[in-house]
Structure formats: structure tokens, C-alpha cells
Amino acid sequence: MEVVEYRAAARFRAALRVFLRKSEVAARAAGLTPRQHLLLLQIAGAEEGISTVSDLVEKLALTQSAVTELVQRAEAAGLVGRAGSPLDGRVVNLSLTAEGEQRLAEVHRALGPERAELRRVIDTLED
Q1: Contact 17, 58 (CB under 8 A)
Q2: pTM for this one?
Q3: What is the phi-psi region of residue 41: left when phi exceeds 0, alpha when psi lies from -120 to 50, beta otherwise?
Q4: How far apart are CA 78 and CA 64, in angstroms?
């Protein structure tokens, strides 16, 4: 790797860490744990805003039992809703409730400048 690549990777890593730390702070300010924030973000970012536990296991890189517990707590907090899949009765679809959407939007607004900076660094890496 060339020095230029090391510098770009170092800048990206630093920007990412700052973004993650500020995300954690913003999540807590919105009344969410960092993991709840990630859960809500992955559900909201899924195709048609619907996800399954299996999808989340892959996207969050957590075990099935950890995701199941996280979903149960989010559901108990009124952040996530469950509905049977119309295509497969064995599958349960997860979606955000109005409360979950509101809290996620709150975190997203708080991260405005940081999101722009992270996007700038990512764009630099892609050049």
C-alpha cells in the first residue's frame, strides 16, 4: 500500500470513529441504546421498510438470539412492530412504529453535519 492510501484509510477510519461516537451520543439523547439505533436504521433502510430477524442477523453481525432479544425489547418499547408475512406464514416481518420512526429521525437530524463529513471522506476514498 502506498502512503497516500494509508493516509486515506486513516482519515476514513478517524471520520468513521467520530461518526460512530456521535451516533451513539445522538441515539442516547433520543432515548435509544446504540444497538436500538442500529436496529431501527437497518429496518428503515430495508426494502420497503420491512425486515426479518434473519435479515438483521446478517446486517448487524449478531447472533440470532441477540437479534431476537433486541427486537423483543424494541417491540416492548413501542419502536418496532411485527406482522406475519403475506407470502410465507413462517416469516415475521418487522417494521418501525410511528414512535420508532420519530426516534430514528431525531438521531438522523442530530447527525446532519457528521453525515456530510463522512460522505465527503467516503467520496475521497472512491476516487
Answers
A1: no
A2: 0.83
A3: alpha
A4: 21
Q: Give me the amino acid identity at 63.
A: T
CA–CA gap between residue 66 and residue 106 (Å, rounded): 25
Instruction: Find cell 419502536 and name the residue.
Output: 79
**53 touches 67 (CB < 8 A):** yes
Residue-wise pLDDT for 14-55, tens only, equals 888 888 899 999 999 999 999 999 999 999 999 877 899 999
Ordered DSSP codes for 90-109: T-EEEEE-HHHHHHHHHHHH
SS (H, E, C) the chain: CCHHHHHHHHHHHHHHHHHHHHHHHHHHHCCCCHHHHHHHHHHHHCHHHCECHHHHHHHHCCCHHHHHHHHHHHHHCCCEEEEECCCCCCCEEEEECHHHHHHHHHHHHHCHHHHHHHHHHHHHHHC
**Cα dihedral value 14, 18, 24, 27, nearest 10:** -130
